[in-house]
Amino acid sequence: MNISRRDSSIHPQPHPEPSRKLTHSFHSSVIMADVKEYTYTEVAEHTDRSDLFMVIHDKVYQCAQFMDEHPGGEEVLMDVGGKDATEAFEDVGHSEEARELLEKMFVGNLKRGAGDAPAKSTAAQPSTKAQQAGGSNLAVIVALIAVLAFVAFKFTQ
Ligand code: HEM
Predict the structure, then answer these.
(1) Do 126 and 64 share a domain, yes or no?
(2) Structural domain that includes position 144
(3) 88 lines ligand 1 (CB under 6 A)
């Protein structure tokens, strides 16, 4: 009798805190596992008006239900069906509202293979920044020339 009571004190019940943490991490991994991954080859199989996938910023969207509603028309969506539409989508300068609509069409993430082209978003960003930097450099040069011309003009008088 006494021995069994002493046994239970040697092996106390586990503290509730770590077990709660374990449950939490278990749930997060279940949520992560729920997000489907598509290869480019899989995305390219969905090009029908009634089943149209497109990739924007490495996320895959099912746009079939949106064809009639798109303010830019269905043709532009058909053109990028089964492809990476990041450039086309960003070139138009879509609003925040358009980006919120995208969330409802999300079906999974793009799984980029070794032979696949790199993300268009990352390829486009440096050139845009370089262009912006080039533009501001030009402004500085023009301002310098204006100041030098003004100083030269003052000297000649
Ligand atoms: C599923 C992805 C897309 C969604 C959710 C979407 C959503 C929208 C929305 C809400 C507008 C109204 C203006 C705005 O709020 O920005 C719009 C306009 C437009 N979209 Fe899209 N769009 C998508 C993909 C595309 C693609 C791939 C193109 C290709 C070029 C495109 C071309 C246009 C054009 C040209 C307009 C302007 C229409 C006008 O003002 O006459 N969109 N889009």
Answers:
(1) no
(2) 118-157
(3) yes
